């Protein structure tokens, strides 16, 4: 770099630093400014020899993270200083955590230490096969030190996502999958809705770039028409609000690309068929006493002009979400017969919605003892403390609770409890206390006896009936949906299984002794294999409950004494199995010559996964399974994010190279209005296409509507796309989708 370049870069660094102080959401005292300046100087020194992949000085990254923390999340001077220092200990040999503690005190040192641990976990993961899920669990343990660790980590991830263009595509995809899988739900749960939205959009941009770019362009094209519609809608409401002398602002907010995509997939509709692509937000000024009254007054004004959808009213003012979010959401029928979501919030509510944690504390009254974030961290701690939970199961359960909508139910004494949507009476029992859950015998909802699997609704009053003799059984896992309940039930069942297993081991030892066989590691392994089990505990447990009885143990002893015959038998069985599998494979995947793996484009054996059924031309990746070799998944497979995030080291790059000689099975679903000759129209289009062979079809007609499933064999996805286009043109057909 020339002197001139260095000078320019230094000027840009100084400008970024000054902007950081200017945009801070909280008012910075002189002490705060001194602290931030000191942290900035240490960060400059610690990163002096470092550059990012894009070529710019590394210091721009901690400055950008600190700016997100200060402006978008609104944390205090301590957090801004910690954000500036978040990579110093990890990247610079000149600074240790002890040095940071000496310079900045214990609080900042704890936060920086937590952030350093998370970063070292990510590095460790690339070197060996430690699971991302396990790292995530460890990462959440840092919440116990200071919740700001996770918040700064989310800001760090946001900036990394914003500046990922210069990375390798495989690295981009891995980081984006991890973001969608873990960081976006976390941001949502902490109440950082703006950041969650940006993380989701950026995640989609790198996991499904074609889909993202297509939707981005379509939103851009429709922006002018949309702005005009919002203005027309707002004008009607403005006139009435002005008459009532409200101090307010109205703005139209487009829905995120990710949420539009999610809606398209969930409802099976195209972009043009998604009606609520935007929401109108009314933000009013009010003192805290009149907030609720004004919100309902504005609701009344809006519904005077536009008819509301009664099932789409969300009152989070009377019962705020556990993230602290408060607002009134209504969906009304706007001009031209389009549904419009209207969000009504006070300025205070709006700040909490945008800044989450920070604004929640700014407006907190001393008299308020209830702290939703603290409650959430305590609940989380219980889940983390259960060492028996498999890491991937833990992440899956945790995610369920992160993204779930909430319901509010009452205890018999009238206390309000918040539970995830879909929670059952058994979940409620465990939410009161673990011991209540363990001793649950039944439940009464609104005075009526209900099963434990009964799904609760908002407003239900629930009374749990307990008994000293009641205890969890395996069926309870079918009734429980929350991580807390499932975790406790699994632990109880495991303890039960261990106890029965110990008795079973003793019974097995005695029975084998009678057959002149010693129970040791070798014979235990033989028995596990013989009964096709996974672990020795499974074996002892089955002996304990009697599903492996005397006769079965004698059969094992007989097979052991005639090992040669057993070996020959196995050989024959194995051959027969392979032939059967080959026959099945041949029908779906034909010859194994069109899919290649890795940079060297190697040809390897693989299986097609049933969850997404890819065919040539689809964007795919290989996943190395434990027992079934390589399985092929589509990149937009429902399981792709989970696999790429939790098992990044097992993902293999894969692509189709030449599929002209192969044939693949594809499933098509059609729906529409029934009329005479419709089936004939469909079959003639498929028959006329020489590259498509129909395997099976089934149609159902119900009150003038029909739905059909067609299985066809095609050579690649270009052919299937053409076929779908032709089917769409048939009179009466509403939707054609590939399953």
Automatic annotation (TrEMBL):
This is RelA/SpoT family protein. In eubacteria ppGpp (guanosine 3'-diphosphate 5'-diphosphate) is a mediator of the stringent response that coordinates a variety of cellular activities in response to changes in nutritional abundance. InterPro entries: ACT-like_dom_sf (IPR045865), ACT_dom (IPR002912), Beta-grasp_dom_sf (IPR012675), HD/PDEase_dom (IPR003607), NT_sf (IPR043519), RelA/Spo_fam (IPR004811), RelA/SpoT_AH_RIS (IPR045600), RelA_SpoT (IPR007685). PANTHER family: GTP PYROPHOSPHOKINASE, GUANOSINE-3',5'-BIS DIPHOSPHATE 3'-PYROPHOSPHOHYDROLASE. Belongs to the relA/spoT family. Residues 405-466 form the TGS domain. NCBIfam families: spoT_relA. It comes from Flavivirga amylovorans. SUPFAM superfamilies: ACT-like, HD-domain/PDEase-like, Nucleotidyltransferase, TGS-like.
């Amino acid at each position: 770099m020339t002197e001139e370049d260095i000078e320019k870069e230094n000027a840009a660094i100084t400008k970024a630093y000054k902007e950081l102080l200017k945009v801070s959401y909280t008012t910075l005292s002189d002490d705060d400014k001194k602290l931030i300046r000191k942290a900035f100087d240490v960060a400059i020194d610690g990163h002096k020899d470092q550059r990012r992949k894009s070529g710019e000085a590394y210091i721009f990254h901690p400055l950008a993270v600190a700016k997100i923390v200060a402006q978008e999340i609104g944390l205090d001077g301590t957090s801004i200083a910690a954000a500036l220092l978040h990579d110093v200990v990890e990247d610079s040999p000149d600074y240790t955590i002890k040095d940071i503690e000496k310079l900045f005190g214990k609080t900042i040192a704890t936060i920086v230490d937590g952030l350093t641990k998370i970063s070292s976990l990510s590095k460790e993961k690339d070197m060996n096969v430690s699971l991302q899920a396990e790292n995530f669990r460890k990462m959440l343990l840092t919440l116990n030190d200071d919740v700001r660790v996770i918040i700064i980590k989310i800001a760090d991830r946001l900036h990394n996502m914003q500046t990922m263009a210069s990375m390798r595509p495989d690295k981009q995809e891995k980081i984006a999958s991890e973001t969608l899988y873990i960081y976006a739900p976390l941001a949502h749960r902490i109440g950082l809705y703006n950041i969650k939205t940006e993380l989701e959009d950026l995640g989609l941009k790198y996991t499904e770039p074609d889909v993202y770019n297509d939707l981005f362009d379509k939103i851009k094209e429709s922006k002018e028409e949309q702005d005009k519609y919002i203005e027309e809608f707002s004008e009607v409401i403005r006139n009435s609000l002005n008459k009532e002398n409200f101090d307010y602002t109205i703005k139209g907010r487009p829905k995120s690309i990710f949420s539009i995509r999610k809606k398209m997939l969930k409802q099976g509709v195209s972009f043009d068929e998604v009606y609520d692509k935007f929401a109108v937000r009314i933000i009013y000024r009010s003192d805290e006493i009149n907030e609720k009254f004004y919100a309902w007054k504005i609701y009344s004004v809006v519904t005077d002009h536009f008819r509301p959808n009664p099932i789409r009213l969300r009152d989070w003012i009377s019962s705020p979400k556990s993230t602290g979010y408060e607002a009134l959401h209504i969906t009304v029928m706007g001009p031209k017969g389009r549904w419009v979501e209207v969000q009504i919030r006070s300025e205070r509510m709006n700040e909490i919605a945008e800044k989450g944690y920070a604004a929640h504390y700014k407006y907190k009254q001393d008299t308020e003892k209830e702290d939703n974030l603290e409650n959430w961290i305590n609940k989380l701690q219980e889940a983390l403390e259960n060492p028996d939970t498999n890491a991937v199961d833990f992440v899956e359960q945790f995610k369920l609770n992160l993204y779930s909508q909430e319901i509010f139910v009452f205890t018999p004494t009238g206390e309000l409890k918040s539970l995830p949507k879909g929670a059952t009476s058994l979940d409620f029992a465990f939410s009161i206390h673990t011991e209540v859950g363990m001793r649950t015998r039944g439940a009464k909802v609104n005075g009526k006896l209900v099963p434990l699997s009964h799904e609760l609704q908002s407003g239900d009053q629930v009374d749990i009936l307990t008994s000293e003799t009641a205890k969890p059984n395996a069926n309870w896992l079918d009734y429980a949906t929350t991580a807390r309940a499932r975790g406790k039930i699994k632990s109880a069942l495991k303890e039960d299984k261990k106890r029965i297993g110990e008795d079973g081991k003793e019974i097995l030892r005695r029975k084998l002794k009678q057959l002149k066989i010693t129970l040791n590691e070798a014979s235990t392994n033989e028995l596990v294999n013989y009964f096709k089990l996974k672990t020795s505990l499974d074996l002892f447990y089955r002996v304990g409950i009697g599903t492996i009885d005397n006769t079965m143990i004698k059969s094992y002893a007989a097979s052991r004494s005639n090992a040669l015959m057993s070996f020959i038998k196995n050989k024959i069985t194995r051959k027969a199995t392979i032939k059967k599998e080959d026959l099945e494979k041949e029908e779906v995947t034909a010859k194994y010559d069109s899919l290649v793996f890795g940079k060297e484009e190697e040809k390897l054996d693989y299986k097609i996964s049933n969850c997404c059924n890819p065919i040539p031309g689809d964007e795919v990746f290989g996943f190395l399974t434990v027992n079934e070799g390589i399985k092929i998944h589509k990149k937009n497979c429902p399981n792709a994010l989970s696999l790429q995030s939790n098992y990044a080291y097992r993902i293999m790059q894969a692509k189709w190279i030449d599929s002209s000689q192969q044939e693949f099975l594809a499933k098509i679903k059609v729906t529409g209005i029934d009329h005479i000759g419709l089936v004939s129209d469909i079959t003639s289009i498929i028959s006329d296409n020489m590259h498509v062979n129909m395997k099976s079809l089934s149609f159902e007609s119900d009150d003038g509507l029909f739905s059909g499933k067609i299985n066809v064999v095609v050579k690649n996805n270009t052919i299937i796309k053409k076929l779908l286009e032709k089917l769409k043109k048939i009179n009466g057909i509403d939707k054609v989708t590939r399953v």
